[in-house]
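Hi support team,

I'm opening this ticket because the web form for multi-chain structure prediction keeps timing out on my end. I have pasted the exact lines I submitted so you can reproduce it. The total is 739 residues across two entries, so I didn't expect it to be a heavy job. Is there a limit I'm missing, or should I split the entries? Thanks in advance, R.K.
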Amino acid sequence: MSTVEAKPHKVAHHFDSAEQEVAASKLGIWLFLCTEILMFGGLFVGYAIYKRMYPEIFLQGSTFLDWKLGALNTVVLLVSSLTMALSIYYAQKGQSSKSTSCLWLTLLCGFIFMGVKYIEYSHKLHLGLAPGAFFSYTETATLQGLPLYFSFYYCMTGLHGSHVLAGMVLIFWLIIRSHKKHFGPSYYTPLECVGLFWHLVDLIWIYLFPLLYLVE
Amino acid sequence: MSVNYLNEKKGLTSWLFTLDHKRIGILYMITVFTFFLVGGVFALLMRLELFGAGETFIPASVYNQFMTFHGAIMVFMVIIPGIPAFLGNFFLPLQIGAKDVAFPRVNLLSWYCLIVGSIVALCSLFFNGVDTGWTFYTPYSIRTDNGTLWVVLGAFIMGFSSILTGLNFIVTVHTLRAKGMGFFQLPLFVWSLYSTAIIQVLATPVLAITLLLLSAERIMGIGIFDPKLGGDPVLFQHFFWFYSHPAVYIMILPAMGVISELITTFSRKTIFGYKAIAFSSVGIAAVSFFVWGHHMFVSGQSEWVGVLFSFLTMLVGVPTAIKVFNWVATMYQGSIKFDTPMLYANGFLFLFVIGGVTGIMLATLAFDVHVHDTYFVVAHFHYVMVGGTLMAITGGLYYWLPKMFGRMYNEFWGRISFFLIFVGFNVTFFPQFILGFMGMPRRYHDYVPAYEPLNQLSTFGSWMIGLGFVVVFFVVLQALFKGEKASSNPWGAVTLEWQTDSPPPHENFHKTPVVGKNPYEYS
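Hello R.K., no limit was hit. The queue was backed up. Here is the completed structure from your submission:
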């Protein structure tokens, strides 16, 4: 059942052993995730402050968002996290073709997520629900501070979306390597590290969804 | 000469694509000193304008741009990468007996981030320059000329350089220590780099999001920091200083690490209070995250918050003083040799204590309100940043030059450079304490005639510092081309980097060292 990697991974010259190399990569990616949390943290703090200062604009703003599309994207990302985890599982079991298929599914979920985001963005921009100074929505009466809500909406989802895109590029890189059979039971560190990144991006969306779409 | 990291491969590409931490350290050295020259020239030009009252040779708008460039270049391109990315890159793996840092490719990437970031920042010159000061305070930075966006984006990209270096160092210290080297056998320079790295990793992302929001503010008018659209400009200051105050410890902590090495080596004595110095580095890093509000005593934060920040800021004085007392205690009854690096270390002690004590004065809420935004503050942070960090980096350069290039420098001219810089520094900045106390505000290109004599004195001093660094430059050049060959351990130091060749081979040690004792055991 288990297959051997086509090209066994060579431990980099400055490490004594494969275990040491894996430990370094793991610590490195976790530290990187800390930096991501602090970066998004700035936006969350800003959100908390303005939500407290102007609660009414956040209430009104969320009525312009379609919670069904938001929920759809939440499900899509959750599924993608599952397929990502399965891909690592299959790599550990040595079933590399299944591992590769799971990566393709993860990438597909990424595309669906970005597609839905595109529909949401273009619809809103069409209505004039743009951030800050470019806000030009006039169909119904809105609160004076509403543009600020959309500033947060675009900044938070925009930064998150750029991370989804970055994750997709990384997953595509994994797919290429996986096709070349670089991964197997004895070496799957890149899968794990990108997987952790992808789960974090998923997790951030889990917070963004209620804060922006479901706020009451 | 035997095969070493310098002559192992030849050609420009072997340097530009190198993964060797020592070569990357040298790349950083060249970059940092080039920017230091540029930032220094701007400083000299500013001092020249301030030589006389009234507009002497540059108009106010140009002065504001010089001031911004001086600040931004010195902070983002010189002091922050200065010690960690140059000396740290070169000596952290050597001091822990490793062959390289944990992620050599990330290490190279971080250098390219610095280069790309600086190029982007320099693009601002095509758009009327920047005149916000290095702090980019809103709402002015939203409304002023277009160049601001480029410098902000440049600083954003340079932030990645800092994050990646910090990340690399933490992982390296955790995973690549030589056999037998526990955390309490780490040299103190490594402890200080480790503490610095924690700040780099945890604080820089907050600057990243702040600068991104400021860019979005300029491009899309998001209004989060713009009072016209309901935003809060003081929030920008909170975000900015949440990074930028810890950032001053990114600048000073590694300098303290260098000083620990210099003092113990040139006193020929085990360092006094090893654990106290090690933990005080971590302590400073921890407290640094809770003091940012002392930059905003007059920005309209609540009084109680001001009192709290005042108290927390004074707390920084405790671990800092612990270090100073331990250094002095190390020298006590040691066999002190005043070679050039030791002179710089003592210069550091003298200047840094003045900078630190005036820091405690400024932390006092009521006193700060009196001298806020005056030259007193300018003098204070130059005593810490220049008197502290630049003294340490220059001392460290002399100390490790034999190891890096296998050549000795000229001791006589080394000492001359110290006296020029040390005396020049005091002549430049001590009068600024008095000027600030007399009420001269910072950041202006002009002042009332009563301040003229002290300003002239200060400008004279700036020429001495300039001359001092010219001497340093020639001493280094002379050492590189004509210097005597250095032995592997010219100072009789005991940390691991002195156990390998000068300059070290590509993989650092011919035989991976095994450590069995504490790092500073002089017998």
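A quick check on our side: The mean pLDDT of chain B is 94. Let us know if the file doesn't open in your viewer.
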